[in-house]
Amino acid sequence: MADPARVRVWAEALIRMHLDPRFGAGSWSFDFDHARRRAGLCNYTDRRITVSRHLAARFEDDEIHQILLHEVAHALAGSAAGHGPEWKRVAREIGYVGGRTHDGEIAAELAPWVGRCPAGHEHVRFRRPTRVTSCGECARGFDRAHAITWRKR
Ligand SMILES: [Zn+2]
Ligand SMILES: [Zn+2]
After folding, report:
1. Ligand 2 mean position to 53 CA, how many Å?
2. Which of 11, 43, 46, 153 is paired with 52 by a 20 to 30 Å CA distance?
3. 3-state secondary structure of 134
4. How far is the C-alpha of 32 from the C-alpha of 56, rounded, in Å?
5. More confident site: 103 or 50
6. What's the domain of life for this entry (predicted)?
């Protein structure tokens, strides 16, 4: 599970790296929000990228990183680009490997790998899981009894 303090550090580093105000992007900031239906949001009016604190707790570091890249690409491409070719090009360039999402959907819904632990907790991955992982909500640290079964959607 991603630690909120670390998520903030990465988000601010990505904003510094990709949305430097010296290059005309204006100053962007990061914050958490309380959304339950979507993971990330790019607010063009306030120049703010937000991530759901609730959902961040369910994702691994790699997933949060992808969600941040998805939103940073929106900030770079501009609101008019939507999820069109310009957004896609920018997103690829900065390292986003996930899918597109429609307005209002959560980026995580586009992650191709979905897993469940025996208790039914859902987990998502943007990349194929390469090793056996167990559910972080059921057990701290690895525990085979809570192993996650993955499928590709
Ligand atoms: Zn999007
Ligand atoms: Zn579980």
Report:
1. 19
2. 153
3. strand
4. 9
5. 50
6. Bacteria
